[in-house]
Specification:
Number of strands: 2
Helix content: 55-70%
Shape: elongated
Amino acid sequence: MSFLKAGGGSIREYAFLIGGARDGRATVLAVPRRRVIGWRQHRVPVTVCVRHGGAETKGPPPVASRAGDRAVALSRQLARAHQELRRQIREIRTSLGHRRLDDDVLLTHCLAFCTALTSHHQGEDNGMFAQLLRERPELAATIANLVEDHGLIASILSRVGELADRAVEPRGSALEAIGRELDGLAAIMESHFSYEERTISEALDDGKPDADWPDMVFGFGT
């Protein structure tokens, strides 16, 4: 990553922190660990930033266009599912920032989004990735990276759920904490989705889905 070259040193000496939002998007900062006191929340693992080329991308992610014998290529269905999840988290973050909805409705929307993203990733882990590993074993390292990301995202979703469940404190404070979690999540999601589409789209279009995983991956279990 170019911003590390100027400072020198091993990338493992850096903490990757989610900074303040800019133009509606969270920024990721690389800060020497020795200069960070109590760094913990919202840090992005070095491995995620390195393999994804950073936590933010510019422009639409590349998606395979070959449709094969299906009306809509699986890669395009995956990209559309990702776009819907991006839309949902963007809408929630905007509502949190401007308090467009009452607190109970906002919390309900947050939990519905957490459920949708969890279902999407479970469908990938248990169905889509399992099929790809059978058909394209050379993708094992890539899929391991994606599963690792799912674990990181799941930990953030767990914190969001805990904050929503504990919203007995003044609601404004709880919603602000949820908003901070969602800022970090949005940056990681963007990186993860782009990496996933870039690395498995071709293999996805070469196969034919088995079992019921498309319902969870593309329709979030609905």
